[in-house]
Amino acid sequence: MDLGIAGKRAFICASSQGLGLACATALAAEGVHVALNGRNEEKLAAASATLRQRFPGVTVTTIAADLTTGQGRAEIVARYPQVDILVTNNAGPKPGVLNDWTEEALLLAMEANFIPAVQLIRSWLPGMQQRRFGRIINITSAMVKSPHYMMGLSTSARTALTAICKAISREVVADNVTINNLLPERIDTPRQAFMLQRLMSLEGITLQEARQRSEQSIAAGRFGRPDEFAAACAFLCSEQAAYISGQNLQLDGGTYEGLL
Question: What is the CATH number of the domain that holds 60?
């Protein structure tokens, strides 16, 4: 299927590895010019070199900038004044419990998983409306719908992003600008590797045991692949997805037990 987005310009947050890089790869495969972002220049260089080799007809650029700071976001917007596709993404806070959630921790969670996405949307949304094409995809979490105590900080900030984007989506869809959220659970990425290491430390078990226990919590009996996740992202960015907006798509191996 031709998704109709070849030649569009995409900015993918936190895309030197993991789900961000997977989404950038899927978009580049569709002929989208992609801008990669991260804080580690070496990782960005390696990721961009791989994409250029795989997709020689696509422009791949990078910017090492910290999304969590106003200065970092200003550098990004100055470098890329026009964006057709925005994929927001950032690592979540460390797991914890109520006693860990100081005011500083709460603010840091919002500064990582809420404020950057909203501010980038504010910067690029008017241009999308004027050009009558825009696709905004927020990578949030399955726990937006199924909160887990240990992940309360991450869940709260991502739920705030979900709420504000739902409000915005109704105002801009008539301009062919859509805003949707992807809710991953147990995708095989460096973040999942971190969570497995944490489980090993807490339970005193091996990596194989930690992985098996984690996989058993998924209805599909396995971790999701980054390319499976990224394929959903690419479709929501397509011309064919113009009638889908304000939605939360779970990629969780069928684990969620609710109806809505």
Answer: 3.40.50.720
**Count of domains for the chain:** 2
3-state secondary structure the chain: CCCCCCCCEEEECCCCCHHHHHHHHHHHHCCCEEEEEECCHHHHHHHHHHHHHHCCCCCEEEEECCCCCHHHHHHHHHHCCCCCEEEECCCCCCCCCHHHCCHHHHHHHHHHHCHHHHHHHHHHHHHHHHHCCEEEEEECCHHHCCCCHHHHHHHHHHHHHHHHHHHHHHHHHHHCEEEEEEEECCECCHHHHHHHHHHHHHHCCCHHHHHHHHHHCCCCCCCECHHHHHHHHHHHCCHHHCCCCCCEEEECCCCCCCCC
pLDDT per position as a tens digit, 166-214: 999 999 999 999 999 999 999 998 888 888 888 888 888 998 988 998 8
Q: Is 39 left (phi over 0), alpha (psi -120 to 50) or beta?
A: alpha
Range of the domain at 214: 188-223
Here the tokens at position 81 are: 């004044």
Looking at the structure, tell me whether residues 216 and 231 fall in a common domain. Answer: no
- Say what the pTM is: 0.95
What pLDDT digit, counting tens, does each position of 97-120 carry? 999 999 999 999 999 999 999 999
Contacts of 38 (CB under 8 A, 6+ apart): 14, 15, 16, 17, 20, 44, 47, 62, 64
> Are 110 and 202 contained in the same domain?
no
Name the token pair of 116. 């950057």
Q: Is residue 259 part of a domain?
A: no
